[in-house]
Amino acid sequence: MQPTAVQSTIRRIGAEHPSLPGHFPGHPVVPGVVILDQVAAVARAHGLGPVAALPQVKFLAPLTPEAAFRIEIDPPGRGGRQGFRVVAAESEPPVTFCSGQLVTLHDTPDR
């Protein structure tokens, strides 16, 4: 049976998130580490396991507080890496905030 892709429910980072006041005053942007934490949470919630590594990540557009977004995670590819995207939930044309690859603990070779 082929693994299937994962798509999260709509998510938002609230304007009251503690990382936002200093990032950046007057023009808040959700920090990359907060976005990647959401990616890891979706991976865990869908049984992919804890994220062991993020070998490739690109931030393509700023994610602002309260903006609706989804996280999409592809089935494992070569070397167990899984592509992911953080995309606007409702946007025309589509907006990708972040993309990259992740490796979960289930995908890493035994040491």
Short description:
With 111 residues, the protein is an alpha+beta fold.
List segments where confidence is low: pLDDT < 50 over at least 5 consecutive residues. none
Give the N-terminus to C-terminus distance in angstroms.
27 Å
Q: Percent of residues in beta strands?
A: 25-35%
Largest sheet: 5 strands, antiparallel
Please state the CA-atom Rg, rounded to the nearest Å. 15 Å
Number of strands: 5
Helix percent reads: 10-25%
Q: What's the quaternary structure here?
A: single chain
Largest sheet, order of strands side by side?
1-3-4-5-2
- Give the integer mean of the pLDDT values: 90
In words, what does this structure look like?
The mean pLDDT is 90. The protein has a five-stranded antiparallel beta sheet, covered by helices on one side. 13% of the residues lie in helices and 29% in strands. Strand 3 and strand 4 (82-88) form a beta hairpin. The chain has 111 residues and is α+β, with helices and mostly antiparallel strands.
Helix/strand layout:
Elements: E1 6-7, H1 32-45, E2 51-59, E3 69-73, E4 82-88, E5 96-104
Antiparallel strand pairs: 1-3, 2-5, 3-4, 4-5
Descriptive keywords:
single chain; 111 residues; alpha+beta; 1 helix; 5 strands; globular
